[in-house]
Design a protein that fits this description.
This protein is of the alpha+beta class. It has one domain: Protein Transport Mog1p, Chain A (3-Layer(aba) Sandwich), CATH 3.40.1000. Helices cover 17% and strands 39% of the residues. It contains five helices and 13 strands. The radius of gyration is 16 Å and the shape is globular.
């Protein structure tokens, strides 16, 4: 399958369409300090820094499966950079190390009729429903591939009683409005600043193989 180039405003990067993926945690990428995580059934793969851990499927699915889709119509991969990795660190405002989630799910008939960019923006957290002044949009870029995948990549700061949580997410829908592909990575504001290069490497490596 050919590589696809994003049609979006600068800065530009390549959006990779992967081929021949196995469901596996691959070996390190040639001593680069990263290794690839691949899920052929979901059609996604991405790289994680050495030392980051993938989390047990059962716990991730139990806590982060979308309530609008049946469990057997979605695939999830959770990961955590903490020395004591745990599902509870995912999307938690006190996460002192980067932690994130990749989720692929089928849309319900009702969701297909009502899907909007706002719905994609709120795929992981209800950022539009938080009190005014609690959410700050740091960056946002529209994404579109030659196969019709489209959506946004966004970085938010969310002010909570526990402190400020920073996250980057990419959420896309296929051309037929059948499947939503999402990736989110976040941690506390200070953690995000310190780990920004690794977080960006994970996000930029996230790739999709459409059926």
């Amino acid at each position: 399958m050919a590589r696809q180039t994003l049609r979006r405003q600068p800065p530009r990067r390549r959006w990779t369409i992967a081929t021949g993926l196995a469901v596996a945690l691959a070996a390190s990428c040639g001593g680069s300090g990263f290794r690839y995580v691949a899920d052929r059934d979901a059609g996604v793969y991405f790289k994680l820094p050495d030392g980051w851990t993938t989390l047990p499927d059962e716990g991730v699915t139990e806590q982060f499966a979308s309530p609008t889709a049946d469990a057997d119509t979605q695939r999830l991969i959770g990961f955590d950079a903490a020395p004591d990795p745990a599902v509870e660190h995912l999307l938690h405002p006190d996460a002192a190390h980067p932690a994130g989630l990749s989720r692929v799910r089928l849309l319900s008939i009702r969701e297909r009729d009502q899907l909007s960019l706002a719905a994609l923006r709120n795929e992981f957290l209800p950022v539009d429903s938080l009190p005014p002044g609690r959410v700050r949009l740091l960056a946002s870029e529209d994404i579109e591939t030659d196969t019709g995948l489209h959506g946004t990549e966004s970085t938010f700061e969310i002010g909570l009683d526990e402190g400020t949580y920073t996250l980057t997410q990419v959420v896309l829908v296929d051309a037929g409005t059948q499947v939503v592909y999402g990736l989110v990575v976040g941690c506390t504001q200070s953690c995000y600043a310190e780990q920004r290069s690794d977080i960006e490497a994970v996000v930029e490596s996230w790739s999709i193989e459409e059926p």
